[in-house]
Amino acid sequence: MEHLKHFGLAREPFVNDPVLDFYFTSPAHDRAEKRIVRALAQGKGLCTVVGGVGVGKTTLSRHILDTLDDAAFESCILVAMPISVREGWLLTRLAAQLGVEDPSEDRATLLGQIYQALIAIREEGRHAVLFIDEAQFLTDPNIIAEMRSLLNLEYEDQRALSIVLFGQPELDDVLALDEALEQRVDHRICLDSLDETSALKYLVHRIQAAEGTSSLIEPDAMKAIYRYAGGIPRVMNSLADNALFEAHMADLLKVTLECVERAARELGVTKKKLKPTEAASNPTPNPALDLDSSDSSTEEASSAAPIVPDEDEEMFGADEAEASVVDSEEEAIALENPIFGEGDAPPPGFIQVDADPEIVAETTAEEEINDLFENIEKV
């Protein structure tokens, strides 16, 4: 296409289809994958992966199936659709995936045929795995009963089949309809939207996977895509794709902030879902650093506190925040970063005040984002 040639891209970088070449391993997706693979290796019966629309559940399921060792697993996937999920759906579809010949219309007989197929797989030294995508649509009680029957199948004191359900948060409500099935969940994995650092890396990854340059989208435009999409990959793809075309129509070589804003208006997308740590502008003060406002404390601290001229009185609060007041012999001076002379020990009763972990995490993320943009500019 003309716009791909304009930007030097080999293919569309922001398609929403689960293209495995575009798979991006965020920390959250990596943790989810490792937990699922471990559960399958242990022969666990039922696992669930729950997440909102567009966070990457389908792509994760396809990626795991593509990377499972064929010598160790016999795997298949079914997609639940509201119009087709009814009594017999699960057993019939699974039998077809397992290659059952002449499947019976009688459910009990069909379950026996499936069991024989599972035994044959186990005798080959492999474990059968079934993934069900869009599992929130499995609301039919008969389907729930079929699933419970499958989980009851065992061979040589081990489960004959592992099932992993991928679905929206409503999946929890579906499982709650059957207490016996709900109690069989061995692992529940929650997949959330991307944080800012992962979102920016995701955009760069998609561009590079399409053989484009990392700097195709300007840094402030990338941040805008993240904030408009709330870190949801599917929305990020749609917004980035439209912004890319806006840049092409404006005969630009890079996607600018204005391109993203125009695309957002066209799509009817508004900025939303900022992470709490990114939305917070004022960190919570550390109680250990608060000053005692009593007269006696102020009098005792006067010898240690700096002398501040009256005209600079408004600056006193900032200096005062770095000091701590001793109210009695049992209280101690609290400093955030003490420096003692070589060989000197801290004074008796000294208390080390650790840095606020939320502030440290936020600072680390900001540094990582800055490093990312520096690397992009070098490419």
Task: Describe what you observe in this structure.
- This protein has 379 residues and is an alpha/beta fold.
- The protein has three domains: 93 residues, Orthogonal Bundle (Helicase, Ruva Protein, domain 3); 165 residues, Rossmann fold (3-Layer(aba) Sandwich); 69 residues, no CATH class.
- The protein has 16 helices and nine strands.
- A five-stranded parallel β-sheet has the order 2-3-6-1-7, with helices on both faces. Strands 4-5 form a two-stranded antiparallel ribbon.
- It is elongated and about 65 Å long.
Please work out how many helical segments DSSP would assign. 16
Question: Terminal Cα separation, in Å?
Answer: 25 Å
**Quaternary form:** single chain
Radius of gyration: 29 Å
Query: Which architecture of the largest domain would the CATH scheme give at its second level?
Result: 3-Layer(aba) Sandwich
Task: Please write the CATH class name of the largest domain.
Answer: Alpha Beta
CATH topology of the largest domain: Rossmann fold
Q: Could you describe the largest sheet, including whether it forms a barrel?
A: 5 strands, parallel
Strand tally, please? 9
Morphology call? elongated
Name the beta content range.
5-15%
What is the CATH homology-level superfamily of the largest domain?
P-loop containing nucleotide triphosphate hydrolases
Strand order of the largest sheet: 2-3-6-1-7
Given as residue ranges, the uncertain stretches (5+ residues, pLDDT < 50) are 277-343
Q: Can you give the mean pLDDT? A: 80
Order of helices and strands: HHEHEHHEHEEEHHEHHHHHHHEEH
- Judged by helices, strands and strand pairing, the structural class is alpha/beta
Helicity, in percent? 40-55%
